[in-house]
């Protein structure tokens, strides 16, 4: 057969076979897909139900299509890219130049030949072409069906107006198109399937397929990745019948899936009470946890919204629900999505080995951390520290299957969502909605998972819009979701529930219950709102008083220090924090007991400061360690560290942030202390403030929170209630700022409010514009082609871009060196993230050091796309391990 003259994978040097023949690679990938689409798998059954096909018929049909994924490699233009020695292959044709990728060439070959192949029986006895009025529908459906296969490199491709003769040729040995036709015919005969022609000409079936095509695309991509692994699929360049090679491919695919954790989904076990998680130790569930244990699960995809105070055990309640959903067949894995890398790290540590209790002991579920700086998490790195199977100096048999699986999954953040249990930022999940390469792999990983989103209130309008779309898609794919929050406005809860109903094809309905705490459950024909009690020990009242100047705040800090209390002052900007820190060090009798913590530290110092803060103010800190300690911080303190202080001051901020900050005030039970008090630095109260009301006293705060009406409303509701009482007045606090309160806003602040409402509308529009139209399927849309790789589209909408700046120094011999040169992960530990306008104030790297900088970049890939800063060569800006990056110009209000 002509198709044995074409290579699919080639290795230019080394012992053994120099290439892997194209038909064999095609069958390798198909074999992986065969097992991933096994009829007993829940995802296969879900797809079969959506497409109204028996699972076995669906499997054979789609695996046949998957075997065509590399048809473009039959192009002589592609074959000319390598010339393996010692094997008879088609010779290159010099006039055929490889200017288009093989994935697009496959789409071109299919577009050109499918009608002829249908008619001559190449496609496995598809029968007569349907009548002309149905033929167009058939062609469009086949285009959609093949798009995930040809788009296996991470984005859909279209043939467009390419000319077949520019890439496919013929010669004395073989004709490229004829070789491809022979392979397709033999493959169709081998796999044995029936064309569902009646479905392919039905518009409603095509619509159903488009909705699941993203999952199919992820399946095709994963199959290609695994099927291309040389460790499992050794090269073969000797011709043999496809029927002989296919069992070999299946055997190798089975081994590849076993070693990467995809052979079988882990076996869930029923939830047996909290004691089963903690070695039989008696644990009394909180009211929220008790409801999670006893509520009746519905049929099909379900959304749960858990609203309760800090300390109510929301994470454990979510895990209870997750284990129950898994055991009931509503999912195969979990993904915990959190707002920041720091909170992701904390959740990864907190989860520990808890996820092992969700599955049978023999299952060995994989667990992966997913965010941009996960290599700095020692716990995660230890979990995947074993050598990779591909390392030739290591005996792969000595490695456990779990280690191999974790290592493979951790190789790329694109793979992280494929793990049985993933913990990471919400960004990793939202990237599935945006035109990033391999986004379909993320959606495939999420398709049958329980998605748990913590601190769901923390996202702006841009991210909320993307989250709503993710929830709608997740519901369509058959997944379930659990959302956790302590301070969610009612309107946000309604929007999230409406998105879920949209995904289920249901009309929106109004949520009426204003109780707090509250558990909301939404499913197919299911809607429950369950008010909950609160444990007395987590019911809190934090008193509020007001400070009108920084001098008053400094006096209040020092008064607390004099009586031996530990204090935190949370500021809204980095520069305000630095200024307060310097003033407090001058006044503190033991200045070494003052700490500064903000986002403008190199990662090396940020990790050190975090550890220092936890040691001095963490749960295990002693009275001697806490005595007179002062922490001046930005909001990074409230986001990531499990610490508490005796007394707190905060710059005025929106009510939800003040509630969150107050959660670090006397968080843990200790000896006798005064009643918890949060002093708020704010402008003098005014019933009728003007537009400069906030800026006159806190200009930095106004630069951060431009909608000054939110801060005025926060001040108003706190002055009215006199304290933060949780949970009793949670709804009053939140709705008093974020509810229908427009009529309460003074005229002087209306302009800022409407300006921000306009910006929020822009954010929503940007999210809708950037997000892929998932309902249109995994296809390039000719009207608006979003798949432009040079475009920078993010999961977060920011006022200006940020840059990763790498701090550099000179070594003792005068050479350029990383700031953290002697540390493990020195490249990442030497970086700090700055806004673009801030980075532009730093001195450029001296021209004489450019070659050394390029050498550093070549040595460490983590330095790519970063901006170098030789600190000692900058006479205007500086860096110090105590106060971080400082700028020469006055008036800076960096966040």
TrEMBL record:
KW Lipid biosynthesis (keyword) present: no
Gene3D superfamilies found in the cross-reference section: 1.10.3210.30, P-loop containing nucleotide triphosphate hydrolases
The keyword Chaperone is annotated on this UniProt entry: no
InterPro entries: Cas3-like_dom, CRISPR-assoc_Cas3_HD, CRISPR-assoc_Cas3_HD_sf, DEAD/DEAH_box_helicase_dom, DEAD_box_RNA_helicases, Helicase_ATP-bd, Helicase_C-like, Helicase_Cas3_CRISPR-ass_core
SUPFAM superfamilies: P-loop containing nucleoside triphosphate hydrolases
Domain of life: Bacteria
Keywords on record: Antiviral defense, ATP-binding, Helicase, Hydrolase, Metal-binding, Nuclease, Nucleotide-binding
Domain HD Cas3-type: 15-226
NCBIfam families (alphabetical): cas3_core, cas3_HD
Family of the protein in this entry: In the N-terminal section; belongs to the CRISPR-associated nuclease Cas3-HD family.
Protein name stated in the entry: CRISPR-associated helicase Cas3
Species, as recorded: Modicisalibacter tunisiensis
Lineage, top ranks: Bacteria, Pseudomonadati, Pseudomonadota, Gammaproteobacteria, Oceanospirillales
């Amino acid at each position: 057969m002509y198709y044995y003259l074409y290579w699919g994978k080639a290795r230019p040097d080394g012992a053994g076979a120099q290439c892997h023949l194209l038909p064999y690679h095609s069958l390798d990938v198909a074999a992986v897909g065969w097992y991933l689409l096994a009829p007993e798998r829940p995802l296969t059954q879900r797809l079969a139900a959506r497409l109204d096909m028996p699972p076995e018929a669906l499997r054979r049909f789609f695996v046949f299509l998957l075997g065509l994924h590399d048809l473009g490699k039959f192009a002589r233009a592609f074959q000319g890219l390598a010339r393996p020695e010692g094997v008879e292959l088609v010779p290159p044709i010099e006039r055929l130049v490889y200017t288009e990728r093989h994935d697009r060439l496959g789409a071109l070959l299919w577009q050109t030949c499918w009608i002829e192949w249908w008619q001559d029986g190449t496609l496995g006895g598809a029968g007569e072409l349907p009548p002309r009025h149905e033929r167009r529908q058939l062609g469009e459906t086949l285009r959609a069906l093949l798009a995930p296969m040809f788009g296996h490199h991470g984005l859909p491709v279209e043939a467009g107006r390419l000319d077949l003769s520019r890439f496919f040729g013929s010669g004395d040995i073989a004709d490229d198109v004829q070789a491809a036709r022979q392979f397709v015919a033999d493959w169709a005969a081998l796999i044995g399937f029936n064309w569902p022609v009646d479905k392919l000409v039905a518009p409603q079936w095509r619509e159903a397929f488009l909705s699941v095509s993203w999952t199919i695309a992820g399946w095709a991509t994963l199959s290609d990745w695994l099927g291309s692994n040389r460790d499992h699929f050794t090269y073969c360049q000797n011709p043999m019948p496809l029927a002989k090679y296919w069992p070999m491919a299946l055997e190798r695919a089975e081994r590849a899936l076993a070693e990467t954790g995809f052979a079988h989904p882990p076996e869930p076990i029923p939830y047996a009470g909290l004691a089963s998680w903690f070695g039989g130790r008696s644990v009394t569930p909180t009211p929220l946890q008790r409801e999670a244990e006893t509520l009746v699960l519905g049929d099909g995809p379900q959304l749960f919204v858990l609203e309760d105070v800090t300390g109510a055990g929301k994470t454990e309640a979510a895990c209870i629900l997750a284990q129950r959903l898994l055991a009931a067949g509503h999912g195969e894995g979990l993904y915990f999505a959190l707002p920041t890398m720091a909170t992701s790290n904390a959740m990864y540590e907190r989860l520990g080995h808890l996820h092992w209790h969700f599955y049978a002991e023999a299952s060995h579920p994989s667990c992966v951390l997913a965010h941009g700086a996960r290599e700095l998490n020692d716990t995660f790195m230890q979990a995947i520290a074993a050598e990779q199977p591909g390392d030739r100096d290591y005996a792969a048999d000595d490695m456990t299957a779990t280690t191999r699986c974790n290592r493979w999954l951790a190789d790329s953040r694109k793979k992280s969502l494929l793990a049985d249990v993933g913990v990471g930022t919400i960004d990793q999940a939202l990237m599935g909605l945006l035109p990033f390469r391999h986004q379909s792999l993320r959606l495939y990983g999420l398709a049958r998972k329980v998605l748990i989103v913590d601190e769901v209130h923390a996202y702006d309008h841009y991210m909320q819009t993307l989250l709503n779309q993710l929830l709608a898609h997740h519901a369509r794919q058959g997944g379930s979701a659990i959302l956790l929050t302590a301070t969610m406005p009612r309107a946000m809860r309604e929007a999230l529930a409406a998105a879920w109903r949209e995904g289920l094809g249901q009309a929106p309905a109004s949520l009426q219950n204003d109780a707090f705490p509250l558990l909301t459950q939404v499913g197919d024909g299911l809607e429950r709102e369950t008010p909950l009690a609160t444990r007395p020990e987590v019911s809190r009242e934090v008193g509020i008083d007001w400070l009108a100047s920084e001098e008053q705040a400094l006096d209040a800090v020092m008064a607390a220090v004099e009586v031996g209390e530990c204090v935190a002052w949370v500021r809204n900007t980095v520069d305000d924090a630095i200024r307060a820190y310097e003033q407090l060090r001058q006044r503190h009798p033991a200045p070494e007991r003052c700490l500064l913590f903000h986002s403008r530290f190199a990662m090396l110092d940020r990790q050190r400061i975090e550890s220092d803060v936890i040691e001095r103010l963490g749960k295990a800190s002693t009275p001697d360690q806490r005595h007179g300690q002062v922490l001046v911080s930005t909001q990074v303190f409230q986001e990531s560290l499990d610490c508490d202080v005796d007394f707190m001051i905060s710059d005025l901020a929106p009510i939800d942030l003040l509630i969150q900050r107050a959660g670090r005030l006397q968080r843990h039970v200790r000896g006798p202390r005064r009643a918890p008090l949060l002093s708020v630095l704010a402008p003098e109260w005014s019933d009728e403030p003007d537009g400069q009301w906030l800026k006159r006293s806190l200009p930095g705060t106004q630069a951060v929170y431009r909608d000054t009406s939110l801060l005025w409303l926060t001040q108003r509701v706190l002055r009215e209630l006199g304290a933060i009482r949780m949970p009793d007045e949670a709804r009053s606090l939140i709705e008093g700022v974020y509810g229908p309160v427009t009529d309460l806003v003074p005229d002087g602040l209306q302009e800022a409010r409407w300006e921000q409402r306009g910006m929020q509308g822009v954010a929503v529009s940007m999210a809708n514009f950037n997000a892929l139209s998932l309902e249109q399927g995994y296809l390039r849309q000719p009207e608006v082609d979003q798949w432009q790789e040079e475009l920078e589209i993010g999961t977060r909408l920011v006022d200006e871009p940020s840059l990763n700046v790498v701090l550099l120094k000179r070594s003792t011999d005068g050479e350029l060196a990383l700031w953290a040169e002697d540390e493990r992960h020195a490249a990442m530990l030497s970086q700090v993230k700055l806004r673009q306008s801030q980075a532009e104030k730093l001195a450029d790297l001296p021209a004489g050091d450019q070659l050394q900088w390029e050498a550093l970049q070549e040595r460490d890939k983590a330095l790519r796309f970063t901006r170098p800063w030789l600190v000692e060569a900058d006479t205007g800006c500086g860096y110090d391990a105590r106060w971080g990056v400082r700028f020469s110009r006055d008036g800076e209000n960096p966040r």
